[in-house]
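Q: My hope is that you can spare some time for a protein that puzzles me. Underneath my words sits a plain record pairing an amino acid chain with its backbone structure tokens. Those tokens are not coordinates but codes from a learned vocabulary of shapes. Thank you; the sequence and its tokens follow:
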Amino acid sequence: MIPRSYNFATRFVLILLSIGCYAAPAFAKTDLPSETFAGYTEDIRLQADRVVEASKPGNEEKLKAEVRLLGKKMHARAILSINAIPERVFLKFRKEGRSPQETESLRCLSEVAPLSVPLWAWLFKEDMVHFRMAEAVRDFSGISGAVRRFGPALMGYGAWLVSYLVAMACWFSCWASTSLFLRGRPSLEADLKRVLKIPFREYLAPFAAFLVFFLPVFFGFGLAVAACIWLAVSTVYLNRGELVIMTVSVMMMAAIVIGGGVLYSFDQIGGNTRKGGWLGGEGYIPLSMPEEGAPVFSSDVAWMLDFARARLDMQSGRPGAAERRFSEILETGKGLPEVLNNRGIAKAQQGRMKEALADFEMARKKRPDDGPALWNAYQIYLQTFNLEGASSIQADAWAGVQNLQPFGFRPSEFEQGEWIASGMPVGEIWIALVRSAEEMIRDAKKGEVFNKFFHPMSPFGALFFLGMAYIWSMVWKAASQKLWVNCTCRVCGSTAMIIASRETSDICTPCRAQIGGGIRAGEERDRRVQVIVHHRRFVRFSSVFVPGAGALWAGKDISCFIYGLVLAASLAGVTTSLGIASEGNPIVYALQKSVLVFFISTSIVLWILGAMWGLRSFSSFQRRFNIVGER
């Protein structure tokens, strides 16, 4: 029986590790084809069906035998992973009303689906919950290995991480701009009363301040544009600690522009991988491939499309077509070990062992420790009875394939005709992304994130606007040192005209003397008490509406900054976990559902604690200056 406190601690640890465990499947395929294992050869489909059928409680030995047989057939076709198998088994469990915890079937399936990050993540979660630390370490190695070697997994890792950081930047910018605007609102209203030379300005000034907050959103400007306006009008009333919060907020808004472009680029370069695009071909048969000669995201992606098509030919039993495609890639100058190794396999499958060995040896020259090329060359030596050559590389070949995480290759179980293919060289994907950095920013406008925050600007225009807004705010702040502006006392809420540094004037003389509301009897005292009451109500409202705002009035700038980051991080987790669909990948759905529940619970707790902290901090702050109660 696992203690409840341990379950809570485990869930917390799992969330901290969610970038590696739950985020990576973000770009994995979520739409399962109508035909089971469509696209594979008939022998692979039939054996995969037998594996799914054998996945039941008390049938572990038969399942292991079926998995081992499927593995041999996969290696003969140069197939590295069939990620749909654990998804089918998980879906089968759910339809039959059984929990995946009832059987070790999923762990056994990792041998034929080693690139399935959702599978490794589920196994890791179960190990942590049941305190199987040795298995947890192994499964976490499987997660990291799959992320490194499976293009969609690594891009999913990057996409989730960028999505999370962008969401965090959005939430922090909203929190900071709103809290800082509320911080400067009383002073802004006082200055508006002074500037507006019209009747009833006492009533119109609060309305004008409200319009400053409301109109940018009402006229359709993005939230970031509105936030910059709020920060710009609040700058003159902020102290140095609050200016740091404003600076970080502006920097985060700039990161939103770049992050939005990165996310759009991920989706473009992956060919909509989440719906079975070309990049997912190493673990799935793609549901769609770009047409020959179709425009691509960049010139660096064209050869990767050919690589994916060639791998599809290999997995579908067309080695001749695969060889031609790999040869075309080599002619373009992409003489990577992965291309040479796979072309060697295609030649070996056609019986041309000598030519295949030449490709394997060339791949080894380019990367001496390349595990697949070493193993395949060793296999050729054995099949051609070149025992001297086989013995010279046997140790390196065996060690090379055994260290290929997340694959659990066991050299002693390999038979003649089984090959180890090379997957998509994932590092080349990042090279293509880096080379298209300018396009990334330009294409940010095509993504949903940018339009919600920077409408109606262009990406470069948004960056220019942010820079100019920040420069204007700093210039306006410097100019305010020579201008008469209103300052609101943080303790009692009374306003006074000041000039020079705000830090020396944000507490009025009566509060600094700690005389509270007791100036003297009469109209002046009643007015002061009324101001104190209104100020306390406004700060309390601000603390509930924007948690932590009360602590900002109490002078806890650094603590508020840290709290704002933590709250934004939790709300970002909610944002990035929304939109999960039960009809997609069933393992991803189960994992992300638990993550969503955790982040929602954490955000509610943080909001309540922040509101209580703000209220308590401001009350303590007022008591320190002898202002207690309503009178």
Notes: The mean pLDDT is 79. The domain at 298-434 is CATH 1.25.40.10 (Serine Threonine Protein Phosphatase 5, Tetratricopeptide repeat).
